[in-house]
Amino acid sequence: MNEIKILEAVMPFLLEGLWMTFKISLITILCGSVLGFVVGILRMVGGWAISTTLGLYIHALRGTPFLVHLYIIYFVLPTTGISWLQLEAFPAAVIALSLYTSTYVAEIVRAAIEAVPRGQSEAARSTGMTYLQSMWYIVLPQALKLMIPPMGGIYVIIIKGTSIVSVIGIAELVRAGEHATQRHPKELMLIYGMTALLYFAYCYPVLRLARWAETKFGSVRLPS
Amino acid sequence: MASKTPIVVVKDVCKTFKIPGRPPIHALRNVTNHVNKGEVLVVIGPSGSGKSTFLRALNGLEPVDSGSITIDDVELTAPKTDLNKLRQGVGMVFQHFNLFEHKTALENITMPQMVVLKRSKDEADEIGNKLLDRVGIGDRGDNYPSELSGGQQQRVAIARSLAMTPKVMLFDEATSALDPETVGGVLDLMKELAADGTTMVVVTHEMGFAREAGDRVTFMDEGEIVEDGTPNAVFDNPQHERTKLFLSQII
Amino acid sequence: MDWIVEVYNYRVVAQFIPEFTRGIAATIWISLLSLIMALIIGTFVAIMRLSANPVLWRIAAGYVQAIRSTPLLIQIYVIYFSIPALPLLDRRLDELEGGIIALGLNAGAYMSEIIRAGIESVSRGQVEGAQSVGMTYMQRMRYVVLPQAFANVVPPLLGQTSVLIKDSSLVSFIGVFELFGAGLVVLSDRLMPNEAFMTVAFCYLVIYWVMLMFSNFAQRRLGGARR
Ligand SMILES: Nc1ncnc2c1ncn2[C@@H]1O[C@H](COP(=O)(O)OP(=O)(O)OP(=O)(O)O)[C@@H](O)[C@H]1O
Ligand SMILES: [Mg+2]
After folding, report:
1. Cα of A114 to ligand 1 centre, how many Å?
2. I want to staple C108 with a disulfide (CB 3.0 to 4.6 A). Which of A104, B206, C41, C113 is the partner?
3. How many structural domains does chain C have?
4. How sure is the predictor about C85, in pLDDT bands with cuts at 50, 70 and 90?
């Protein structure tokens, strides 16, 4: 009985946190995909200097925890003194998450382009198309289809990643849960359990949708 | 050469594949057949007629729905039969070789001897090398399957089966995945085995082999044995319309 | 050289070398223990998911889905804060134990998927080849399926281990001292975020690079025999 009362009391706060989680993840998947798409394509078609630089960008972000990215963007950048690098928590969180997301998207772009059979671009080239034309008209449209299912996996990675931005004070779901436990310190299990359940309710359908898309469109592997 | 002692006895075997949402496929319908010691039985028939299913049933790779199969007086279809033990005495050569990719040619032959028959490494090596010589690739023992041609891989697969000293050898289209120029060599090897008195059941589309090496030919269609007899009888004087149609199509 | 000190005061960093060293050691130790736990869990869960028994299969699938659909941070909180509420132990889990268990359970789910895919990637023909010479189930697993699955599984498992190492930074949320925690110490002692987190980032990059080299080496060694 007591549990139900407590849940009734904290649920509005948790749902507000979930709403924030939803907003951040939605903005991030948009920004991160665009950025990752550009990075991925440039890395494939750009010259040696561009692809090496972008390769380093991906490795640097892949080689360090997201928590470190977040701290560098939120705490280190402002010490440069440059005014537009003095970020509020919300834009800092979205930027950090988008950079992180872009590395996954870039890898998927590459895997998808490589998964399109060579014969496709060779046939295009043999009709007299340039390299860029064969990319744009023949290879990319086929690669795009392969990219749809793994994007579901990336979206879930983002949702889970938003939990970490609680540390710079953003009132998303984990933060809401922490607040609730401060008010009801005896009910840690109940509140964190409920928080986990809300994440599950958000992520699980996305994963199922991705699975369904995979059977429909085929897929490339999501890098770990 | 072939004696009258039956070593494989198949009685009234039925097998149906049921796939949800589709009509069931009757792969074997009341199949009755036998193979005598030293005999070479060749099974022919159109694609999808149940030849592979029949062959795979003979070593229990494909469990059957009803009927009985007996190998050297051991009833394969009895529920308590130790299939693994039974398979030691039944060699099988696959269309796609199925060599162990992570083992060299020689190891493919020695590993099962050591693991299954508990032979010592020295003994297994000696037998393995002898068999590699016998199948004509004594110099390729240290190569991995991916480094061998299809014909060479199939020779290793045959040697792997022979190493277990099987009572009967099953061949499922052993040459249909090979390049045309290597088919002849593998068929010659199979003819040698036949001439040595090996009991064999051979599924093949090579009618020349069937005529030359077969003691008996069984023609299957839609899961049934339609016709059965000596190669001359079946090829030169087929009794059934379906057999005639099939033979006219493939020649 | 003064401008360097302006941007990145290496003298301050030098004073904190003991902290960073302890941090790196702790990160490696935590990752190693969780890795062992994850590999054990991963293997069992993979075998459960491949089994014909629907109960085992359901349990394993549910576990993997639950882990994949919730953030690691909340898993750490649930395990560290909530499990002690269960009357299983007569004492609380300490932070280190809680963190390692959460990391192990988390990585175990992802590794089970890798191991399952590795076992499934060994073709049906390989199993039938082994059956046709009379090998038992255990012999087929031991001599044919697992050795081949191993070669397919090691490179992605090393990749997942890199993720585990990065993820271990999250145990700093429940107060475990490790590499990221060393950065937090510098931040709170000197209020120098640059020196703190650029150094932490650098250390993680070195670990990542070592893992990358190791993974390339393993791939060459394992792939070499087969192609
Ligand atoms: N595992 C299976 N599941 C469902 N149906 C199967 C399976 N194996 C075989 N069949 C079906 O059983 C029938 C007989 O197949 P089988 O492989 O024995 O034919 P076959 O005579 O060997 O043909 P081919 O000459 O093409 O090898 C076919 O209709 C086939 O589609
Ligand atoms: Mg067949």
Report:
1. 35
2. C41
3. 1
4. low
